[in-house]
Amino acid sequence: MSKIIIPRSFDQLFIFLLDCGDSMYEYSCIKLSKRKTAQKELISFLCLLNKNEWIAINNSYAIVNFYNKSNIHVDISQSVCFNDDLELFKYFYNPKNITEGLTIAEELAVRHLANKEYGIHKSVVIVLLSDGCGISEQDTIPIINRLKSNKQITIASCFFETLGGDRDGMNEAANFLKKVCSSELTFWVNSLHERLIFEMDYDRPNRHRKL
């Protein structure tokens, strides 16, 4: 008996932008380093992309590391083969150059959206995993607003708190990461939400909210 082929309903790309600054070595509020917490959340989320064939065929992902330089750690792929021992965060240097990381994410998004398929809606979700420390808000404004102006792109972020950290400093960092998001519905603290897997049409009216 031949295998039933599940047709693609949409084509969604997740681009995970990982903060590789040395502040991510500090402990998070769940008593793992923020780096380990972020990696654990990301691997769990990637495993959900292989939860069943329907999810797997409609979603792909890429991983970009940002630090004083940025690089593509995993290019666009539908193959998820990570485990808890894999080191996703490769470098730990400051200052953090998030603008370069966002530029690489934009290039990946443009490449994905340009590959058109008849009748298939294409979209991109850029997910920033960071503690928000040492990031210049002013430098990010042009590229963030450019990304938000594209109705096919959603920006989400996951903020990782520092155990025993300065409350005012953490609030400032969290507020910045919240402003980066397409809407408040795409901001989380210490964990990713599986709702990201499904198309985010409910968020379309807020796509143009600028910094």
Keywords:
211 residues; alpha/beta; six-stranded mixed β-sheet; disordered C terminus
Structural features, described:
There is one protein chain. This protein has 211 residues and is of the alpha/beta class. Helices cover 30% and strands 22% of the residues. The chain is built from five helices and six strands. The chain has helices at 34-48, 53-58, 98-114, 137-148, 167-180; strands at residues 10-19, 59-66, 70-77, 121-130, 153-159, 187-189. It has a six-stranded mixed beta sheet, sandwiched between helices. Helix 3 packs parallel to helix 4. Mean pLDDT is 80; it is low at 199-211.
What is the element layout, followed by pairings?
Layout: E1 10-19, H1 34-48, H2 53-58, E2 59-66, E3 70-77, H3 98-114, E4 121-130, H4 137-148, E5 153-159, H5 167-180, E6 187-189
Parallel strand pairs: 1-2, 1-4, 4-5, 5-6
Antiparallel strand pairs: 2-3
Helix pairs in contact: 3-4
